[in-house]
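ok trying again, last paste got cut off:
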Amino acid sequence: MRQLFVALCAAALSATLAVAADDVTQTHALSLLGEPKYGPDFSHLNYVNPDAPKGGEIRQVAIGTFDSLNPFILKGNVATGLGLVYETLATSTQDDPSAEYGLIAESMQVPADNAWVGFTLRPEARFHDGSPIIADDVLFSFEILKEQGHPFFRTYYASVTGVEKLGERQLRFLFENGDNKELPMIMGQLPVLSKAHWEAREFDATTLDPWMGSGPYRVLEVDPGRSITYQRVDDYWAKDLPINRGRFNFERVKYDYYRDQTVALEAFKAGEYDLRVENSAKRWATGYDSPALNRGYIVKEEIRHSLPTGMQAFVFNTRRDFFQDPRVRQALAYAFDFEWSNKTLFFDAYTRTESYFSNSELAARGLPSEGELTILEPFREQLPEEVFTAEYHPPSTDGSGNIRGNLREARRLLNAAGWEVQDGKLVNTGTGEAMSFEMLLVSPDFERVVLPFQQNLARLGIDMSIRTVDPAQYQRRLDDFDFDMVVGSFGQSLSPGNEQRDFWSSGAADTPGSRNLIGIKDPVVDALIELIITAPDRQTLVDRTRALDRVLLWGHYVIPHFHIRDFRVAYWNKFGHPDVTPDYGLGLWTWWVDREKAEVLIEAGALTRTASIGQ
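nice, full thing came through this time. structure:
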């Protein structure tokens, strides 16, 4: 009887495993929107030249300074470009925004109930010292990032309940529940670090010693605070994978640091570095005039993209008492004259931003749809009526510079919130405190944008001082939420999810280094974030994201700025790039040094051979 019982149990277990296996999808790519763009047998990405020549050097610019090569902790100012050194289990492309393709992992496994995700690692995957990447390294990376890494990782991996090692190259991550459709892809983004390399080192300390990674480049030279150079790894284990064909063509990548954008631009025109992406309309319109530009040695190119432009804005720190009343925040928005700024300062280059998810289908438009109303209705008593009855638009003007009407509306809102002008100063009638705060900036470029805003606020009796600090101090103050108002930006993807917790959740508001600069603590916002994370399909995700967008907009947490739908790229004419550009990125790592073009610059004496081609 015992033998029969054991046999029956074994048969039942075998049947259970067979059913479980039938319910598990094994795939080369994870996708939130149906099938991934590239099938399992693709040979290369559509926006690369698979036969691009290798070699040469690209020199780029960074502003500020750096004192650390550890990109995974809160401490320090991290050097630019370190993402070239490290790899993840899976990687995204710039033309398929909702998918990730296996990189260190050769395949992924996801059950029908989304209760876990499994990864099978490639046997050829190697760190730079030649040691294989195995499941123990992945387990170590997950644990060390959660325990000692940047606070972001704890939030991002909050719904992962455990990890199971299934073999030397196999493991799976277990989830709190199956509702979080994005979690498999989040785990695909896990940076994989060498357990052997880090076990005897202090992980949560800044360092200028190069780390060992597994990516296409390694750190070659470090001049602390001034420059960092990366060398392409000749025996890079993944160079022939379809995801990488035609990419990472430069032999060397160098970032030179400058303290000031004005000095950096002059250095570019003098040939001190090769390429810059411009973010100033004024510099783009007038700053590049030079003999090199006129002779065709420098190229200015505007490359259209379809990326969501997110939200750049003057950001209120609602942890400050004087910014806690939404009527005050709304009033101050009437003092920013975008239309005048766009005409006078920006050469009419920009479009006003009216959504946290601008330039995408996720942006709230018109009045709430039926789907959005279904989501918002349970929270009606906790929300401003405008969420349901009005389309959000920031205050606007005729561009003449005369904003008397706007200032009258601002005074009305301030009076309703208990603020009145006394002896030329805006004073809280309850406490007697005058409104005085600081605008914290990291770039002098923005001072010309802030000064007219400052002058308009002064007409309301508000004393706003302007302080520009170096990047290191600026980052420290942001990490500690030690500011009144800043120029902030909140980038978005086409598939928002768990990262929204770091932007807006109550938990992130008290987490140093989080992106909840505003300090939002709103149970409605928390609930909407979780609804986005657990959206079962695309239309539901769109509806829930638009609902969150409306709640954020009518909370008057920021004074929206502006955006542009092109990359403005200036470069010395030594590069080639594919005819096809990706919709969701610049595709810089598909470019290459064109030696014929470089020789023209050398013969003309515009650049030296070292500067044109590299060493």
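cool. Residues 2-22 form the longest helix (21 residues). The longest strand covers residues 160-167.
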